[in-house]
Design goal:
The complex is a heterodimer of chains A (about 210) and B (about 675).
Chain A lengths: L1 H20 L3 H23 L4 H28 L12 H20 L12 H18 L3 H21 L5 H30 L13
Helix pairs in contact in A: 1-2, 1-4, 1-5, 2-3, 2-6, 3-7, 4-5, 5-6, 6-7
Chain B lengths: L8 H18 L3 H4 L6 H28 L3 E5 L8 E5 L1 H24 L9 H20 L3 H19 L6 H32 L14 H19 L8 H7 L2 H25 L5 H24 L3 H29 L2 H36 L10 H4 L1 H14 L6 H15 L15 H24 L6 H5 L5 H19 L5 H13 L8 H4 L2 H25 L26 H11 L1 H4 L2 E3 L14 E3 L3 H18 L10 H19 L2 H10 L1
Antiparallel strand pairs in B: 1-2, 3-4
The chains are: A mainly alpha (about 210), B mainly alpha (about 675).
Chain lengths: ~210, ~675
């Protein structure tokens, strides 16, 4: 069972690299949606049983992360004139390298953290750290508002993976917190995108710096 | 006293009646929110509910005094810390009386003063927050748990902020509210620190007396200083008073009355509660408090004399009276340090009686000032005048409050100041070897305060009510409606009653002294033993009889018909106008000049040259020295320095997220022993 979970986590890590390396926004959305599906399956695999709690978390995660939010983003894409992230602040190759370094550090660090080994899956903590770092890299290097949203989603996915550790100990609170957090973030970002496109007829966050006092 | 096992009816009532009052008063403004903004029903419902709730709470306080114990209630709640623990002991009961009475009268006054019809925009908001404020006041007085205390303290602070900014289109009110908001939260911060240190020292958040020797002098002194700042900011002790004049001036008058009469007193209550909790106070605590009291008292009244705004003037008088109260408290603390129960009885008794008196006569003054402002539509003293003719009842009420605040017999202010005097003079006597002759220097300061207050109210009463009207509005002014006069009449009656029969209040004051001393097992002496209260009654009655005789004699000798109205002799000037009277500023000029080194008056006048000078304008003003000369420049300097941090504000969201990442990494580094980990990484 745990080897299956670890395999899933490896896939999640690979998808992280795809997010970092791709410039086409549509394919990033698909990638994040796929990551959402993987995350939805994870709770069941990690805990090795299909209880009510695991089911709720799984179904909720898949519905939100893999269906609802990607669909919203796709709809936003349909209204927007952009398809690619053309001029990131840091190039794709460099961000891939950064992602690789981050993943390496996560693996090295997590093996020595006191939390390691409390649950079956070996890769849970490093994958969570690596995914959070990937989210941060996307958030800090990309310019388009919609890629920012995607970066935030990846970041939240990382937090979700970490939350799986606590699913047994502090079950419902953590999950609801994570999902709610995510939902609010999407909501805010959605408003932001709307406003940017309406007010500045462009959805680049670079224009936001004009709002600086 | 709390160990009486009997769970009698009186005990249940003593706790539950105030709690019911808290709920009813707190909700009193809510029904109005669902009514039309200009409907008169909302204001009536809110005042009715408020008075009903106040009656319940007051009944509870009286029951607790009569039952003579400390009724308590302790219920666990859902929060991880603290519990819902309330207790009505003598100290709470003594503060509850004015804390319940004054807001209730204010709500009745407010029905006509700030009616929905005249203020459809702000009326409902005012009533809703007014109820919350009054309820928080009661709750914080009976709270015995630190968390509950802080919750109600913040409830009071926030609702008071919304009340100060009732007229939120007025930039002056917004600025005053802002200063108040900052000041009150600095105080709350000090109180958070206070309770944190208390929890560290004792492992409990309860407002209970610390057993002697349970904490070192360093810890108790830290607690004392934190409490002094936190409660002193609320009470308006002199260097900490900065929020007070602006907030009192900007708020509607009945809110000013509650702020000045009651909200300040919660700071005093906090100081009294804290000083009863802390064990083994050294002499310098009492000395410090006494000194602060003298500074507040003298500087408060000096600033008051220099004011041109009627409500700012009254606000500075609040600082002065808080000074007198704090002097009494300091005396009681000295008495505790030096083992003199008679100083405690006189000092604490005088302080708490002055808390009562000040809340009654200051509310009376704010109500009558509010009536005047309601008619004249200005707060400038120099634009009023001659109002005694058009508003005779208000004038009499104001005079009553003025005599009381100056500490003159036969009214109540005299009694409480007399108690403080007696206590201060006792510090001279080396009866049993212990004397604190330094404290006796406060007695002449108290005398100075009284004299200056009298001068100030001569100025105010003369300029506002006597002379001839300076503005056209003063001619058309008319007496306030009954709903505004009745609360004033009740307050005036209380002022006269306490002045005539202070012995009636003595049991409540003794109860407060007992509660204050019981925490550390001290002995309390009855006020009747150490103060000649019946002599005071006799003298007051004598003054009343003498005054009545004088009035009667005057009436008989002078017939109204014989009084001719002529202008004041004007040195032969042909065309005098009403503006050529003695103004409040000119009356105060001598004293302002003498105390110029405190108040820093500014004058902007024309240079008069030649025999026929051109028309000119003269303008003088006095700002708050502490706020405008110390704090605001310091704040501006800090703001200027922090502008250097603007380089961090790049305007790029990506950089901001990097900051978050940096903070996260720093947090992780601070928790995880990274160097250790890295070392192991390398060695493997």
């Amino acid at each position: 069972m745990n080897s299956a979970a670890d395999a899933m986590l490896v896939l999640v890590l690979l998808l992280n690299f795809f997010v970092l390396g791709s410039s086409r926004i549509r394919s990033i959305i698909y990638t994040v949606a796929a990551q959402g599906v993987l995350l939805g399956i994870l709770p069941v695999l990690v805990h090795g049983e299909l209880g009510v709690r695991e089911t709720i978390v799984s179904v909720g995660a898949i519905a939100l992360k893999a269906v609802f939010i990607p669909r919203m983003l796709m709809r936003a894409m349909a209204d927007l004139p952009i398809r690619r992230e053309i001029e990131p602040l840091v190039g794709f190759r460099l961000s891939l390298l950064l992602g690789a370094a981050g993943t390496g550090i996560s693996l090295a660090l997590a093996a020595r953290l006191p939390t390691a080994g409390t649950t079956g899956a070996q890769l849970l903590v490093p994958a969570s750290f690596a995914t959070i770092l990937t989210g941060f890299i996307v958030l800090t290097t990309r310019v388009k508002a919609i890629t920012q949203v995607l970066g935030y989603l990846v970041l939240e996915n990382g937090i979700f993976i970490f939350g799986l550790l606590l699913l047994k100990a502090m079950p419902f609170l953590v999950e609801v917190g994570v999902l709610l957090d995510l939902f609010v973030a999407i909501f805010v970002m959605g408003i932001m995108i709307n406003h940017i496109s309406r007010e500045f007829s462009s959805i680049s966050t670079e224009r936001l710096s004009a709002l600086k006092e | 006293m709390g160990d009486e096992p009997a769970e009698s009816l009186a005990w249940v009532l003593a706790v539950w009646l105030p709690l019911v009052g808290v709920i009813v008063i707190g909700a009193s403004g809510l029904p109005g929110l669902f009514l039309r903004r200009d409907s008169a029903a909302g204001e009536r419902v809110s005042a009715t509910l408020h008075v009903l709730g106040a009656a319940a709470a007051l009944a509870g306080a009286i029951v607790s005094v009569v039952a003579g114990g400390a009724a308590s209630l302790n219920v666990a709640w859902g929060l991880p810390i603290g519990s819902f623990r309330v207790e009505v002991d003598g100290l709470s009961a003594a503060f509850l009386v004015p804390l319940i009475l004054v807001p209730a009268l204010g709500s009745v006054f407010g029905v006509r003063y700030w009616s929905q019809r005249e203020h459809p925009r702000s009326g409902r908001k005012l009533r809703a927050f007014y109820g919350v404020l009054a309820a928080s006041l009661i709750l914080l007085t009976i709270a015995r748990d630190g968390v509950l205390f802080l919750l109600s303290w913040e409830g009071m602070a926030l609702s008071a902020y919304f009340l100060v900014t009732t007229d939120d289109r007025d930039p002056e009110a917004r600025a005053a509210g802002w200063v108040y908001f900052v000041a009150t939260h600095v105080g709350t911060l000090a109180l958070f620190a206070f309770f944190a240190v208390l929890y560290e020292a004792t492992g409990s958040l309860g407002l209970d007396a610390l057993p002697a020797g349970s904490a070192t002098l360093g810890v108790t002194t830290t607690l004392f200083l934190l409490g002094l700042v936190g409660f002193g900011l609320k009470a308006g002790i002199m260097p900490l008073h900065v929020w007070l004049p602006g907030a009192h001036a900007a708020a509607p008058s009945h809110v000013s009355a509650v702020l000045s009469g009651v909200v300040l007193k919660t700071g005093i209550y906090g100081l009294a509660r804290m000083t009863s909790m802390l064990p083994d106070p050294p002499v310098f605590w009492g000395g410090l408090v006494l000194t602060l009291g003298v500074i507040s008292g003298v500087a408060g009244v000096v600033f008051a004399i220099a004011q041109h705004d009627l409500k700012r003037l009254l606000a500075y008088h609040s600082i002065e009276n808080v000074g007198i109260i704090v002097m009494g408290l300091g005396l009681a603390m000295l008495g505790r340090s030096m083992g003199r129960p008679d100083w405690i009885a006189l000092g604490l008794g005088g302080a708490i009686l002055h808390v009562w008196n000040h809340s009654f006569f200051k509310s009376l003054l704010f109500f009558s000032a509010g009536s005047v402002i309601h008619q004249i539509h200005t707060r400038e003293i120099d634009r009023m005048g001659g109002l005694a003719r058009t508003m005779p009842i208000t004038a009499v009420m104001f005079l009553c409050g003025a005599v009381a605040i100056c500490g003159l017999p036969p009214l109540n202010g005299f009694v409480s100041e007399l108690l403080v005097y007696l206590g201060l003079l006792r510090t001279l006597g080396p009866a049993d070897g212990s004397s604190a002759a330094g404290a006796a220097f406060a007695a002449p300061a108290l005398a100075l305060i009284g004299a200056l207050a009298a001068a100030c109210f001569v100025k105010v009463f003369g300029a506002v009510f006597l002379g001839s009207p300076r503005e056209a509005r003063a001619h058309t002014a008319h007496e306030s409606p009954r709903a505004m006069l009745i609360p004033m009449a009740i307050l005036a009656a209380v002022c006269i009653g306490v002045g005539l029969l202070p012995s009636v209040a003595a049991p409540l004051l003794d109860g407060a002294s007992r509660a204050w001393t019981s925490g550390w097992g001290g002995t309390a002496r009855s006020l009747q033993e150490v103060a000649p209260l019946w002599w005071v009654s006799g003298m007051s009655a004598g003054v009343w009889i003498g005054a009545a005789a004088c009035v009667y004699a005057l009436r008989r000798r002078v017939r109204p018909r014989e009084i001719a109205r002529v202008g004041t002799w004007d040195c032969g000037y042909a065309a005098p106008s009403a503006r050529m009277q003695y103004s409040a500023s000119s009356l105060a000029q001598l004293l302002v000049g003498i105390f110029g080194w405190i108040v820093h008056p500014r004058e902007h006048g024309p240079h008069v040259r030649g025999l026929f000078p051109r028309p000119g304008k003269y303008h003088s003003h006095v700002h708050d020295v502490v706020l405008d000369e110390w704090i605001l420049p310091a704040m501006r300097w800090i703001a200027g320095q922090t502008m250097r941090m603007r380089v961090l504000q790049t305007g790029r969201i990506q950089v901001y997220i990097l900051y978050i990442l940096g903070a996260l990494v720093a947090l992780i580094l601070s928790i995880v022993p990274v160097l250790d980990l890295l070392g192991r990484l390398v060695t493997q």
